[in-house]
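Q: Hi! First time asking for a complex rather than a single chain. Here are the components, and I think there are two in total. Is that enough to go on?
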Amino acid sequence: MATAETIRPEDVVVGLLAEVRQRMGSERFEADPVSMHTRFFEWRDKAEFSKLFDLFVFDNRDYFPYSETLDRVLDGLQLAGYLERTNPRGTYYVITPALESLFEQNVKSRFGGPQLQALEALAGKFVEGIKTVPLAPAK
Amino acid sequence: MGESTNSTNKLASDVAAFADRYLGKPQVPRSPKVIHDALWGTQRLYKHEVALVDTPLFQRLRRLHQTGFSYLTYPSTTHTRFEHSLGVLYQTDKLARALHDKYSTTDEVVSVDRIRQLRVAALLHDCSHGPFSHTSEEIYSTFPEMQELIGPRGRGFEGSSASEVLAYFILNSEPFNRFLEQLKEHVALDLEPKWLSGVILGGLKNSDPLNAHYAEILNGPFDSDKLDYIFRDGHYSGLPLGVDLDRLWLATEVHIIKPEDVPGFRRPMRRLVMARSGINSLEQIFSARMNLTASLYHHHKIRACDCMLKAVFLYCKENGVELCGRRIETAADFLHFTDVGILAEAERATDENVREMLSNIVNRRLFKRALVISMNGFARPGSEEDESDTKEKYNLVHELIGTTLDEQRKLAIEIWDAAGQPGRQEEVWLDFPKGVKSKDLATTFVNVGHMDAPKFRTLENFIPIEQWTKQYLLQKWRGHVFCKPDYVPKISPAASAVLGEKYHIKFNEYAFTPCDLGPSK
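A: Yes, that's all I need. Here is the structure of the assembled complex.
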């Protein structure tokens, strides 16, 4: 079984978003970099989650802690179609079913039991704190 | 005190030794001096600024090219960090004085005293660059003592660049403090090293949020550093680029942004904000940077030279070989090198391999492309050339960009092995340049209200930079496997096989067409 040292930032984000999708289904959530980066930064300081964020670098010199690592991963997932931002102004993210499959088939095995539990807990916190909008709002 | 603290102390102490050697006593002239620049014309330097310019620390910048090895491809790009630093002084002064004039009734916004200090910070902002600037930085930023500071959970400098850390240690060293004290005996000025380094590194934004705008003049989305290098690199490379500077200076405002104005602000912060009328200037800056990146910074010949020099540094470090009479042990060692000194080693180095590697650069016998990795150059086996395939490729390109130097070296050695170990392993390199995206989208604010009743929106609402950066990856981004010309026929198929197997892809003719696959001569 893989150890925490071999878990890449890509794996953590995919794992988290797959768990998030299980909780919020096809709802979309605000693609707000300030909120996303700040949240990851705060989680890194919590003992129960910190191992997951060992490879994330944050630059905390401006008004919010910015992680180039997280930015690169989110861009990659978006460009690969796992995370969509196709609404006209790019205001929202939609997690696609393909991301859940990616997690189940290629990524999940990298995590140990406690790490999967940590991901589930993080997903709960993530959903609590984000602004969601139904994918196809009723007129 | 733990081991990590010891290594930081050693780094600080090594940098202080460098500062001691390169500062000396200030030589203050009797009067200010006038300097002429090909780009910005004539400007006056105050006596204390001349004293700084006349130190070996600053004169050393004459021996550092501004754009590394670009002069081997764009022959007139021989401009140096010295000229650039003077140009940043000019740009800093222009923007700061425009703001001072705009808010002349409230001196606290941009004070004359602070402008004097900003000018000094502008002069010193690149004083810590190593030889061929970002090329050597790629190497020493991986050193353990540097990673402890700038890497994940780095102590005090996480997310900073390695050269910024060295600048911090220079400006906060005892010799630099002593130099400033001695300067005060000749010129009435109050320069605080902590403030100067806070402006240069940008740390001032959080440590003194109501003065964050000063840091943004030198370290922000449209800072004086960018404005000079865009014009200077464009001018000397012959790439015509334009930014409406007059409009930019006049349209820049300073506002206090409060937590209730913009989500994410933890406390009030005074920032540079662009009026709506200046958005076009910002668009021109981003566009110019993308043009420079595609044509100059990511040019394959220039990237090949960078790889050749990185090979020299790694070879010397790993084999304990001296370069310019010095072993590479810590990041601070690079401060003692210059471009001129390194290239002179092509004839002087005692190690035969170093002489050969450097002489190949000096005489432009450069690495060649053995494989070109681009969005057009490969496919997933069995996949159709459709939208989903394109998206998969994007993901792979992002993964490649995210690889570390160490991972790239391991892959290069694997390729070298698969090719039957032609020559030395340092003669095979992978290069995956970073994209062009930055955090500027979320940290640049536009005033969509009035001067006296501002409303703030981030720049991403006005300029489609997200789409630009995607298009850059799709159309222009190129990764490469480079090697010595003679080995291309062997390295090319090996690289295709190794990378193909690792990433489950199959390269097509676009990956090979630019490579010279003819028989070995």
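A: The interface with chain A takes residues 150-154, 158-160, 201-203, 205-206, 257, 262-266, 269, 387-388, 391-392, 394-395, 398-399, 401-402, 435, 437, 439, 441-443, 461, 466, 469-470, 473 of chain B (CB under 8 Å). Let me know if you'd like any chain examined more closely.
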